[in-house]
Specification:
The complex is a heterodimer of chains A (420) and B (272). Chain A has 420 residues and is mainly alpha-helical. Chain A is 72% helix and 1% strand. A two-stranded antiparallel ribbon of chain A has the order 1-2. Classes of the chains: A mainly alpha (420), B mainly alpha (272). Chain A: Residues 201-407 form the ABC transmembrane type-1 domain.
Chain lengths: 420, 272
């Protein structure tokens, strides 16, 4: 049976019609398919958005959030808006301050004092004394009465600080997180007092880089041995890499503390061998941090590199040597480049994870080895300075997310962050 | 030069790798015997053998409470993370899934984002909505931390899954849920279980989030260890560490066996 069209014009038109109908159906089917796929991903996505990403977003917003002063000293800041910041402000401003202090609760004023104290140490004392007397003040003679409490109220700088701290958004914390400060006149300068954060950022990056380099240098040969040894042995050897990997981070940190103490196992072994006469300082310093962090992160290099190496066929070595390459040349020109994707992924993962480390440096390191995470925790736990904690979190996340996106784009989703 | 020829270079490599393996195992090798020390010292040779640190741990109310909390939280977080992570992996594995890279990047973010940042954010958020110092709050956070691992392991298993099987099931009249339960789930089960083990370990190991969002009543094993370490290292901690190493070894062997089984299913022709 043959199938032929009498009228080609109608046939073509029919084809076109059928094809476009098919295209529409296909589109619809595709759309239904993507919808089903998204419906399966949605529960986890929503869950993570609410329990994980939203809290982080709200925290980061605290880095620029600056509502305390404007809320509590609302009349004052309103009056200060028109002030030219040269001579002391008008009597209206003084009156407004007295009204604000009289109507605000003690707790809210304490928040504002703390906030203003960041700009000028001593502001808290000034505010406390003023608030104590605020009940007796009258709004008619506010200027003279405030000056009688403390002559700082007669200084232009005092009012500049209040005005500077009153916008609802601030760059104060973010600047401070990189050791910068804004002068009352708006110039951005290097912060004079406690300019430690660039040091901390550099230290965080340096420790992470050292750990990454150590992990690659000692992990690569191990991965190579595991990939090229008889499978019967390599399976057992791999267990020796995996067991520490599965063991709790805190257990391993505990173990290193016990091992590295001045009267610990390592020191007593070394002195028994006659290699040292004095115990070495191995914990609560940089050496301890590097040892413990390298130990904890090493499997993150060994496992992906090993996986890549196992996929490289032996014939490449044979091909290289049959073409006259000596072993070292075959390694450098053929084998090493083939393993680079694994090395890159592993190294970047180790670097990203190391940047955020908190527990291990806090337990094994000294005061000079604390990384960014420690200071974020410090500001939350010790001084409830959320703005500063959030600003340092912005710095840390910028480093980490930047590198993470590089990892995702370079290696695709399958390798990113995968524990094998 | 390839498989195991005993050249001098090969020997150097073996010795180097041996040293690295000793380094990797050193903390575990050293701490287990110390937990049986009859004296509170951390050096060898040990003066005598004793179970006193284990007795101290099992008799302590603090350790009991923290162990119970750890198991409850990890179990609940594992169930939630496994359900959510498995669904997401199946969705992302569908050939018609849009924005796949972006979606998986978001899902994996809890592994990558520094724990302190997450913990401080969750602390701040929970204080507002009343979940601070609750086991529920801890379960929710641990679910978020564990789900990406489930997604990754299940996705790895699904990479070898033949989608024609689902079409075959459908053409034989199976509704999607039946096809999933009877065809897909049995095949991806090893991935689901090893993902669940990862989620369990993630929750069981977490100390940073627990430090910020729990009070004395919700403390977990790692939190209890942390406070022990901050004050003065008691030898009782070595006993807890040893117990945790045994748990880790058991979980690792289970996950490993599952992975080996999966590999056999994916490439039945390979020798190992």
């Amino acid at each position: 049976m043959t199938h032929s069209y009498e009228n080609t014009a109608i046939g073509t038109a029919g084809h076109v019609q059928a094809a476009s109908a098919l295209r529409i159906r296909l589109k619809r089917a595709n759309r239904a398919g993507s919808f089903k796929a998204l419906a399966l991903v949605a529960p986890l996505l929503l869950f993570l958005s609410v329990t994980f990403l939203l809290p982080i977003g709200l925290l980061l917003a605290r880095a620029v959030d600056n509502r305390e002063v404007a809320q509590v000293l609302s009349h004052t800041t309103e009056q200060l808006a028109g002030w030219d910041m040269r001579a002391t402000p008008s009597d209206d401003v003084y009156e407004a301050l007295v009204r604000d202090l009289q109507s605000a609760s003690r707790d809210r004023v304490a928040e504002v004092s703390k906030r203003l104290n960041y700009h000028s140490p001593g502001f808290r004392t000034l505010m406390n004394r003023t608030v104590r007397e605020a009940g007796n003040l009258t709004s008619e003679n506010a200027r003279a009465e405030l000056l009688a409490i403390n002559d700082k109220w007669g200084e232009v700088e005092t009012w500049q600080i209040i005005k500077q701290a009153s916008p609802a958004l601030t760059d104060y914390y973010l600047l401070k997180a990189v050791d910068l400060a804004k002068m009352p006149d708006g110039d951005i300068v290097t912060a004079k007092d406690d300019a430690i954060y660039t040091d901390v950022i550099v230290r965080t990056v340096v420790i992470s880089l050292c750990v990454t380099v150590l992990c690659v240098l000692i992990g690569y040969p191990l991965a190579y041995l595991l990939a090229t040894t008889d499978p019967v042995y390599s399976r057992w050897l791999l267990m020796l890499v995996l067991l520490p990997f599965w063991t709790s981070l805190l257990v391993r940190t505990t173990a290193w503390l016990v091992l590295l103490q001045s009267n610990g196992v390592v020191n007593s072994l070394l002195s028994w061998l006659g290699l040292i006469s004095q115990p070495l300082e191995l914990v609560h310093n940089r050496v301890g941090v590097l040892i413990a962090m390298t130990h904890i992160l090493l499997p993150f290099v060994v496992l992906p590199v090993h996986a890549v190496m196992k996929g490289i066929p032996d014939v490449y070595w044979r091909a290289a040597s049959s073409l006259g390459a000596p072993a070292h040349k075959a390694f450098l020109r053929v084998y090493l480049p083939l393993t680079m994707p694994g090395v890159g992924a592993g190294a970047l993962l180790v670097f990203i994870l190391a940047l955020g480390y908190y527990i291990t440096p806090a337990l094994v390191g000294g005061p000079k080895d604390q990384m960014l995470s420690y200071f974020i925790a410090y500001f939350v736990n010790q001084s409830s300075n959320w703005g500063m904690a959030a600003a340092l979190a912005v710095v840390l996340l910028t480093l980490v997310v930047g590198l993470y996106l590089a990892l995702v784009l370079a290696y695709g989703r399958s390798r990113a962050g995968a524990k094998p | 030069m390839s498989v195991g020829k005993a050249t001098p270079a090969r020997w150097t490599l073996r010795i180097f790798a041996g040293v690295v393996l000793v380094f990797l195992m050193a903390p575990i090798l050293a701490i287990i015997p110390l937990s049986f020390n009859s004296e509170p010292f951390f050096t060898y040779p040990m003066p005598g053998f004793s179970l006193r640190w284990y007795e101290a741990v099992f008799a302590s109310v603090d350790w009991q409470l923290s162990a119970r909390n750890s198991f409850i939280v990890a179990a609940l977080a594992t169930v939630l993370a496994t359900a959510l992570g498995t669904l997401a992996a199946i969705g992302l594995n569908r050939p018609d899934c849009p924005w796949r890279m972006a979606l998986s990047a978001i899902i994996i973010s809890p592994i990558v984002i520094p724990l302190v940042v997450a913990a401080v954010g969750i602390f701040y958020f929970y204080a507002d909505i009343g979940l601070l110092n609750t086991l529920t709050g801890l379960v929710l956070s641990h679910t978020a931390l564990g789900a990406p691992f489930v997604m990754i392991t299940v996705a790895a298993t699904l990479a070898g899954f033949d989608h024609r099987l689902m079409r075959a099931a459908a053409s034989l009249g199976a509704p999607p849920v039946t096809a999933f339960r009877r065809v897909m789930l049995p095949i991806i089960m090893p991935g689901v279980v090893s993902g669940a083990i990862f989620a369990f370990v993630t929750s069981f190991d977490d100390v940073v989030v627990a430090l910020f969002i729990t009070g004395a009543e919700q403390k977990t094993l790692p939190r209890q260890m942390w406070s022990g370490l901050r004050e003065q290292i008691s030898p009782a901690i070595t006993a807890v560490a040893t117990l945790l190493i045994i748990v880790a070894a058991a979980l690792m062997l289970t996950a490993n066996a599952l992975q080996a089984r999966q590999q056999r299913i994916n490439n039945p022709n390979s020798a190992h």
